[in-house]
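Folds vary. Our protein:
___
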Amino acid sequence: MRLNDNWRGVRGNVRWFAAAVALAVVGVVGSPASAVELRVGDILVAGFAENDAGDVVPAIVHVDPVTRNRVFLSGAGVGDGPALIGPRGIAPNADRGIYVLDAGAKAILVVDPENGDRQIISGEGVGQGEPFNMPLGVWKRNDDSLLVVDRAAKAVFDVNPVTGKRTVISSPSVGSGPNLIEPNGITTALDGTILVASYGETIAEDEYHGLVYAIDPTTGNRSILADATHGDGLGFIAPIGITRIPDGRILMTDNWAAKVFDIDPATGNRTVFTESLGNATPVPNQFVSPLGIAGARDGSVYFFDVDNELMRVGAAGGWASRFSCICVGFGEGPHILEAYGVGVVQVPEPAGMALAAVGGAVVTAAFARRRMRPRGTA
């Protein structure tokens, strides 16, 4: 089993996924908590990893951008609260805590970075509004509200992280334009336009075409921004992760094409930011199945690949290289097997420096101050 039957393009092993869900439900304890002091530039990954016992468990993993070491930040026996089931998205740049979208729990959780404790802030029984059905992508807007794209509902939700209230802002019954087909990821352009990466209609067995939607955040109206007939550039096959990196560019992973695209949010024109050159390239630069993606202030772009774990590309694009994995010389820590959620801790917005409570979880002023300092500084 998987969290849904339509997760195309994922080349992982179904058996370990089912085992991971079973372990999460019974509350199997993995590695003890590791002391992690979050700093600007730190990388967080939401997905599935092996614990010390060799079991595959859902978890949030912290990756140090200097040492490349990996430690469990939440899950795998770290932190109290509702168990993670299928962490799919992450928004670590909120100074109120780390927002995690759990597709298995059909909920958004906030994780306390001090101890890994988890609390549901929107989901069944928490917050008003239509429930999530198959939430697969999350993005934090500058006003701290969260956008969630739900594949089964073919909808985009606006979520208030304080009250948990869910408001549908685009769906078959809200807004006009082509309905979302099989959406996976969500982000926003600098002007606030909502961008959704989606699988397209099936052309033939195991043959698809992907697309990116543009959604008006006020009306919910939808249009196709980029696909085989919109915008210039190569067509997509299986878009998965989409993000706006700090310099404003929109990057999207294409799982089956083994490419990352740079997409112009105004025209839909796209270029290949990085791609796998297959067997012609050295193994460290080869990737097969990119999933989650995020950008850092220093220009680094990180994405997860199921064969090479966390990979890095420079700001100009080009070849990707292994950054953190179980390979010798690429950091120590748990083996990450699958991750749709990748995030980089960013400098908080000035208005976010005040103390705030989210679902009862309060992040201290000391945490906010720490996040203002780059890793490696005092």
In short: The helical segments are 14-26, 365-371. Residues 125 and 253 are 34 Å apart (CA to CA).
